[in-house]
Amino acid sequence: MMEIFGIPSQALFGQLLIGLINGSFYALLSLGLAVIFGLLNIINFTHGAQYMLGAFVAYLGLTKLGINYWVALVVTPLVVGATGMLIERTMLKQLYKLDHLYGLLLTFGLALIIQGLFRHEFGSSGMPYPVPEVFKGAYNTGFMFLPKYRAWVIVASLVVCLSTWYVIERTKLGAYLRAATENPSLVQAFGVNVPRMITLTYGFGVGLAAFAGVMAAPIYQVNPTMGADIIIVVFAVVVIGGMGSIMGAILTGFGLGLIEGLTKVFYPEASSTVIFIIMTIVLLIKPAGLFGTQK
């Protein structure tokens, strides 16, 4: 078996694949956070719970209604995104003119409530969600076997992330969204319904979290704590990339996933802390993040 830096190639590429899978979820979740913070200035701590909701809606849709994975991948972000819009209309809109801390505390409290309700109903043990039939099996790349479903997750995450970046940064709709955050009164004077745009934007960010939850369901166990397990890491990714930076969230998410995978190969003891070590170093050198701008 070929070795690279003294590590068997299969072990090295296997960990890189795991890192890339984790990076796909980091990128999707941090993208949703970046969209919400960059356009609404809300630190959405409920994001992890909404990611968990995405997995549960897909699971319950399959077990109770017979809704398959492909339908769930479309319907679930719409359902969970609608609940997000309800939260924005009834609660978050009261906090836009206040300090960011109020939004963080509200969304943190909501996350604990949602997680507690699901833990009470379903317990803490995980529940399996089957891999779609078309993605069962693996590709033989010559040096390792690449599971088809994991390859799909990476490709789907890249497509969704880059499409979101393009819409926000390169289209007229994105220009309206960015302008609405800087000068809502002026944008409203041009006939744009700014409150509706803000609500839809929050719903879209929540929908991204739910989309990630559906894709995660066949890989990880569907359980009430799955959002809490990942959200702290995702916040670190957002801080490193730069709060509100769309491309920063994407590149940092995938990059840190790979770094985490490599760390598990060469120094496993640091694999759970390497992202936070990087965050500390970045904040000391560039407080606004790698791709952020100081306001």
Class derived from helix and strand content: mainly alpha
Biggest sheet record: 2 strands, antiparallel
- Put simply, the count of helices is 11
User: What is the general shape?
Assistant: globular
Unreliable stretches covering 5 or more consecutive residues:
none
What does this structure look like?
The protein has 295 residues and is mainly α. The model has no long low-confidence stretch (mean pLDDT 88). It contains 11 helices and 4 strands.
Summarize this structure as a short list of keywords or feature phrases.
two-stranded antiparallel ribbon; mainly alpha; 295 residues; 11 helices; two-stranded antiparallel sheet; globular
Summarize the model shown.
Helices cover 71% and strands 3% of the residues.
Layout: helices, strands, pairs:
Elements lengths: L2 E2 L2 E2 H32 L6 H19 L3 H22 L9 H23 L15 E3 L4 E3 H23 L1 H11 L1 H6 L4 H23 L9 H16 L4 H21 L7 H12 L10
Antiparallel strand pairs: 1-2, 3-4
Helix pairs in contact: 1-5, 1-8, 1-9, 1-10, 2-3, 2-4, 2-8, 2-9, 3-8, 5-6, 9-10, 9-11
